[in-house]
Design brief:
The chain has one domain: MetI-like fold (Orthogonal Bundle). Helix content is 75%, strand content 0%.
Length: 244
């Protein structure tokens, strides 16, 4: 399963402009990559989209998870199903639905429409991770804080939120990786000049895979792998602490 990734990494250090033959080791493709203005612009857009969508989703996803876990209200079951629907429906469906919605209200496409669309699925992932953490917390801690004179806001910010923080961070890291790698939703909702890294890669490989794209793919795989590893480490650590 990992053999294609190893082959891609191997040829990113090849002097040859073609992957068919090996002509020697070089770091030139990585140097060219970091001097490419289009790549740097796409990277900037991807970071803006990823950070913005994760920041918005972290707040909304945490509040959604707490509301679903701690409160009873009419239509709760239906709302829970709708909130986590982006986890199971295809990205293409989210992309088309978002584009139709934006067109219906004549909203011009831009980098912020990408952010809006990605908040939809980032929210669901962060909410799911936070919800799993909430199931292992003792609700009596908040009740004790209220009995000792804390307001509901103080009980949330000083008692509940610190316990949820590892899950929030893990969910944000997971959502950031998904946002960074997203192509379908971004391509449907991007405006002119709002290319993200996956969109830039796709536009270039249509004329053939070049070594600089191999180098970029290797970097993306490493970054995604590191972030996913950190998120999983945080999640495993919090589960271990909860079981002790």
């Amino acid at each position: 399963m990992y053999l294609p990734i190893l082959v891609l990494a191997f040829y990113s250090f090849n002097k040859s402009s073609y992957s068919a033959t090996w002509e020697g080791f070089t770091l030139n493709w990585y140097r060219q990559l970091f001097a490419d203005e289009r790549i740097l612009s796409a990277l900037k857009n991807s970071l803006i989209v990823g950070i913005s969508s994760v920041c918005i989703s972290s707040v909304l996803g945490t509040l959604m998870a707490v509301g679903l876990a701690r409160y009873q209200f009419f239509g709760k079951t239906l709302y829970r199903g709708i909130a986590y629907l982006p986890l199971i429906i295809p990205d293409i469906a989210i992309a088309v639905a978002t584009l139709v919605f934006l067109a219906a209200f004549a909203i011009p496409l831009s980098i912020w429409t990408i952010v809006t669309a990605q908040v939809v699925f980032c929210l669901a992932y962060i909410g799911l991770v936070v919800s799993s953490r909430l199931t292992n917390l003792d609700p009596h801690l908040e009740e004790a804080a209220l009995d000792l004179g804390a307001t509901p806001v103080q009980a949330f910010t000083l008692v509940l939120l610190p316990q949820l923080m590892p899950a929030i961070v893990a969910g944000c890291l997971l959502a950031f990786v998904l946002s960074l790698d997203d192509f379908l939703i971004a391509s449907f909702t991007a405006g002119s000049g709002s290319n993200t890294l996956p969109m830039e890669i796709f536009s270039r490989i249509r004329t053939g895979v070049k070594p600089d794209i191999n180098a970029l793919s290797v970097i993306l795989i490493l970054v995604s792998g590191i972030v996913a590893f950190v998120a999983e480490s945080i999640r495993a650590s919090q589960e271990k602490n909860s079981s002790q």
